[in-house]
Design goal:
By secondary structure, the chain is mostly beta strands. The chain has one helix at 2-21, and strands spanning 40-48, 53-60, 70-76, 83-90, 104-112, 118-128, 133-141, 149-150, 172-175, 182-186, 192-196, 203-210, 225-232, 235-242, 251-257, 265-273, 282-291, 298-305, 320-327. The strands form five sheets. A four-stranded antiparallel sheet has the order 1-2-3-4, with no helix packed on it. Strand 14 and strand 15 form a beta hairpin. The chain is globular, with a radius of gyration of 23 Å. The termini are far apart.
Length: 357
């Protein structure tokens, strides 16, 4: 009897040990969409090499008639957990003397200086009170979350020569990794480009060009606004938004070029992000793109219309929310269509190089 009891106890102990040795299944954690609280739109994403964190800057949404007047920043180490960094620029104060509101669609550039320090240039559009129109300004900081100090005057306040319509909004900036030259893009109703001067707060007016993709319809690639440019494996990619920001049909199209100043060749299958009404996802556009440092791993950050505000009386155009999904490429470099999701993405792990630009 004692022998039997000993064997039984031994088996139980072994069983417990074997169970403990089994690897535990970790629950996969997703970001969920939207990734930011409350209403935000026109998201601009950046990875800061100063502190190895991702940052999102956006239009603060939810105000009647797109009346938001300040910009905030959110940061994350992994693209799924976001920290509110506070207000970084307020157009309702004397912080920005030339603008009175309509704080829209920002862009940002990080530049490392020869001494190892960093400078940040924050570009945005606001209502220019002196000219009674939308203009583009710039503010500067030495940290990604600020504090930012405005230049004091807009840097773009007129349409390119020959144009009679369209607003000076929806700015984008791009550093060409091939030449290290910097470019600025903008335009609602047209897409314009110019080189930024070395000071990063003025443009070379002799380089201004209109490079609007021609043709298309509201069902595919007719240009409306929100240019965004990035570079991958020898190809310059140009993205833009189609239709109106308050439309469920608001979506993203793209083309490519061999130069950051165009001309743009519209992709054979240009639409890469659009609504999914079966899953209550509408108006998916005005995007930016992020590459995970050290990896050929890409994500698209965009806004969509909150499903509870689709009725035109409720202001779908200014009740938007920020989302993120994986973006992948085919072997020939074309972008695969992105399926907008409610689930979002899993955490990323940047591969940080010791040498930072």
């Amino acid at each position: 009897m004692k022998k039997f009891s000993f064997i039984l106890v031994a088996l139980v102990v072994l069983g417990l040990d074997c169970s403990a040795a089994q690897p535990s299944k970790r629950r996969v954690r997703y970001s969920g969409n939207p990734i930011l609280p409350e209403f935000h739109a026109d998201p601009e994403i950046m990875f800061s090499h100063q502190n190895n964190r991702f940052y999102i800057y956006s239009t603060t949404d939810g105000a009647q008639g797109w009346g938001g007047y300040y910009f905030t920043a959110f940061s994350s180490a992994n693209l799924i957990d976001w920290k509110h960094e506070g207000i970084i620029l307020d157009l309702a104060t004397d912080q920005v003397p030339w603008a009175t509101g309509n704080a829209w669609a920002p862009a940002i550039m990080e530049r490392r200086q020869p001494d190892g320090s960093y400078n940040y240039y924050f570009y945005y559009s606001g209502h220019d009170s002196d000219r009674n129109r939308k203009s583009i300004g710039v503010a500067m900081a030495d940290k990604p979350a600020g504090p930012y100090y405005d230049l004091g005057t807009p840097i773009i306040y007129t349409r390119p020569a020959g144009l009679t319509g369209g607003q000076q909004i929806d700015v984008d900036v791009f550093n060409d990794p091939v030449t290290d030259e910097n470019y600025i893009y903008w335009g609602n109703g047209y897409m314009a480009v110019a080189k930024l001067n070395d000071d990063m707060v003025s443009i070379d007016t002799t380089t201004v060009q209109v490079i609007t993709p021609e043709g298309g319809s509201l069902e595919d690639f007719r240009y409306r606004e929100a240019p965004y440019v990035f570079y991958r494996k020898g190809i310059y990619y140009f993205m833009w938004s189609v239709d109106d920001t308050g439309s469920a049909n608001y979506h993203v199209a793209y083309g490519t070029s061999s130069s950051p100043m165009g001309p743009i060749v519209v992709a054979r299958q240009p639409v890469i992000l659009r609504q999914d009404p079966n899953n209550a996802i509408y108006g998916t556009a005005h995007n930016s793109v992020i590459q995970v440092p050290g990896k050929d791993e890409w994500y698209i950050v965009y806004h969509r219309i909150n499903k509870n505000y689709m009725d035109k009386k409720r202001g779908p155009g200014f009740h938007r929310e920020v989302c993120i999904d994986r973006m992948e490429f085919n072997a020939d470099g074309t972008i695969r269509p992105v399926t907008p999701s409610q689930r979002g993405i899993t955490a990323v792990e940047p591969k940080i190089s010791k040498s930072k630009r």
